Amino acid sequence: GNVTSTLQGPGGQISNITLSVYSGEVVYYNLFNPVSIQVFEDTDSWVTATAGTDSIIKFDSDSIASWTIPSTLISMREGYFGSAYLMDNGNLLVAAPASDVNGAKGTVMVINRTNGNVPLVSLPIDGDPVRALPYSNATEYWVAVNDRSTTGSASRLIRINTSGKITWSWGDGLLTHPTGFAVLDNDTLLISE
After folding, report:
1. What was the pLDDT predicted at 24?
2. How confident is the model at residue 104 (pLDDT cuts 50, 70, 90)?
3. Whole-angstrom Cα distance, residue 72 to residue 79?
4. DSSP state of 10
5. What is the secondary structure of 79-145 as a DSSP string?
6. Are 54 and 66 in contact (CB under 8 A)?
7. First-to-last CA distance in the chain?
8. Is 95:132 a contact under the CB 8 Å cutoff?
9. Does 102 have pLDDT greater than 70?
10. Does the model's pTM come out above 0.90?
């Protein structure tokens, strides 16, 4: 179903938004710290990103893991978010936090799922990418980036291309510690922190 509400933004902005709400069965699986879930209502399946041995797991309609991406390819960290998004072309878009304790560089990666989990793109990101989603063209991605410093002053939302060039940026000094975002039906960006 949907939930419609009024959202207040910076500078007194007010917008009406509608969010889709999903509900489903409870599945028992040994997931350690799931950080994101993408739901496919038409096939009753979902993709999870988790800080475990398998970083990404796709469950089928019978709640059985149909494929996994091991943490040896790309890994999530407990308490630092991250995401996995199965794109329409079958490739997997992954935002993974920095593997070091200082949060210097995380990774945005595109993985070819249909050809043996081969990384097609691997982009170093200053800070922790907490969520990545495809942009309207096939060569750019939205990425919410968390700056782990106390102030979080370098946290931002960026659009980055497959060459690693930032083509758009917003939020420097406005965001502190983003935890995710969504692109609404009207192409409005909804950022949580």
Report:
1. 64
2. confident
3. 19
4. G
5. TS--EEEE-TTSEEEEEE--SSTT--EEEEEEEEGGGTSEEEEEEEEEBEEEEEEE-SSTTEEEEEE
6. no
7. 24
8. yes
9. no
10. no
